[in-house]
Amino acid sequence: MGTNKTLSLSSILLIPVFLAIVSSGLPTISGKGFSIREATVRDLQLAFKHNKLTSRQLVEFYLEEIHRLNPVLHGVIEVNPDALAQADQADQERRTKAPRSLAGLHGIPIVLKDNIATKDKLNTTSGSFALLGSVVPRDAGVVARLRKAGAIILGKTSLSEWSYYRSTSPPYSWSARGDQGKNPYTLGNPCGSSSGSAISVAANMAALSLGSETDASILCPSSKNSVVGIKPTVGLTSRAGVVPISPRQDSIGPICRTVSDAVSVLEAIAGIDIHDNATIEASNYIPKGGYAQFLRIDGLRGKRLGIVRDFYNLLHLSPGSEIASKKTFLQHLNTLRQRGAILVDNLKFGNITELYFTDFGEHVALGAEFKLSLNAYLKELIVSPVRSLEDVIEFNKNNPVLEKIEYGQDLMLQAQATNGIGKAEKAALVNLERLTKNGFVKLMTKNKLDALVTPGDITARILAIGGFPGIIVPAGYSKDGPFGICFGGLKGSEPKLIEIAYGFEQATKIRKPPPF
């Protein structure tokens, strides 16, 4: 492992080799007239093919943008000191027409949420100094697949510390290592916990990114930062090597600027991993021929889309709710209809009151699951300053300056007090299953829906507790910032959701880069 394991964030971002690059004044547009900013994977691959761009130039561009923007936005925790070497290797493979150069993400830089393990010189800390210097046994399953697809690991992104499972006190997107992440459109709340991943691609500090979600952590920051987020069916993508909260709810997915880019990443990371048993069963959902075939401009035609008006009245409960314009969403419903979708309107969601206004059991289950799964993750590390949740709690107590102890660690303390999956936890799990069956599943099956359409991330908890997929797409801007529209479906419905999301995106083309 590299010596940078003990360096501070500022030291890592100011490694001399990068100083030479970022001070060189690389233009937004390369010497041969290709614009990198806002370029899609397809754009970049065509530029490679026609010798308008090299992977080195691409990495240099993003390193410069990180140097320029990250001191304000705090979207990136750490850059990979080997990123340029990976870029040079990709360029060499392309010149020699190596078989690997045909891989879907070959030579494309991607940033990863800092809870996703990489067996390289990068740290994996979940935003906490407690894991700084730890050594992972292997790449996370999704990282191994990204490398196989030819992607360049550019760095790690900031997040709400411990994926917002340390305390309920800190603001979204704060971590001890990453400081306070900021929305590039408003310089305000970017939402969490995969905030840095959304910030980075929204602000063009990276081509692609990966996030993770237990409950809203992909969908909310994607909505708030005007990017596309795919929260896959639980188990469709491996969670092995990712700092966990709940094996029952955790999901790893792409956060990108376009639906097609997000699908390119999903295509690369979906599949069986022997270190995550859930991927074996979920692999049955992967369509023959992959996901790109569902990027259909007429994907909305004939799709049955459910509309539950009550969700529009609950927007005040969402972190991004103040920006959501009911008028805009009503206009989008007309667009969906005009593009051939069948809107099944004025539906009633059976247990909406219980899900949004009672303590329905999710946090009871998550506390015990967090302790069990985190302890297992920490024990597997080759080197680590902490080996259990109890160690992490003690570390936080003993490092008040580094950890801003005033933010507390109430969620960790509650989790530590649990003793496995006991009577209370079992009752909570039974209730979650009941709510899922009598709520979302009943709504979808009774009305033969392809997707439920909702504003922002308001239905994230419903998708979370049932392990269901969702795709969020930019839907508009207001004085408070961007907001998205979400399409959620039953397990394995990613193909239909991709058709719907891509059809909507191509019909509206709402996303615009931040003015920052």
TrEMBL record:
InterPro entries: Amidase_dom, AS_sf. Residues 58-456 form the Amidase domain. It comes from the Eukaryota. Keywords: Signal. It holds the Pfam family Amidase. Residues 1-25 form the signal peptide. SUPFAM superfamilies: Amidase signature (AS) enzymes (SSF75304). The keyword Signal applies. This is Amidase. It comes from Quillaja saponaria (Soap bark tree).
